[in-house]
Specification:
Archaeosine Trna-guanine Transglycosylase, Chain: A, domain 4; 5 strands
Length: 128
């Protein structure tokens, strides 16, 4: 099952640094997978997906996001929350029962060195 990155900031961080922590409202499979930036989009890279933490919502706290902020691609928890709400819809985000933090790692560091800048320049990391 493909992992879609609609957040340009998160995708660009992954391509630049080789890993990113992403927050999802739904549980997803872990292990090897591939990423794209839109439904029906082209494959950007192979990744490994690791579940870090499941949190109860909407009682989540900023501290749960704060501990992952340096690996998220965002400058603040508020910016991260705003992006999640924009992608999923504010109501859906605020009324979710659970949420999941995943670490996503590029599987091929060689690919990263050769292609990351080109993908970002072409704008393939456009959608979150």
């Amino acid at each position: 099952m493909v992992l879609i990155f609609k957040s340009k900031k998160a995708l660009d961080f992954l391509l630049k640094h080789g890993e990113v922590v992403t927050f999802r409202l739904h549980e997803r499979k872990t292990g090897k997978d591939w990423i794209t930036d839109r439904r029906g989009g082209k494959k950007i890279a192979d990744v490994e997906v690791i579940l870090f933490e499941e949190v109860r919502m909407p009682s989540y706290r900023a501290s749960e996001f704060q501990k992952y902020i340096n690996k998220s691609g965002f400058d603040s928890v508020k910016e991260w929350w705003d992006e999640i709400a924009k992608i999923n819809g504010f109501s859906k985000f605020m009324n979710a029962e659970k949420g999941y933090f995943y670490l996503v790692r590029l599987l091929h560091r060689q690919w990263l060195r050769q292609n990351a800048a080109e993908v970002v320049e072409r704008g393939e990391g456009d959608a979150p």
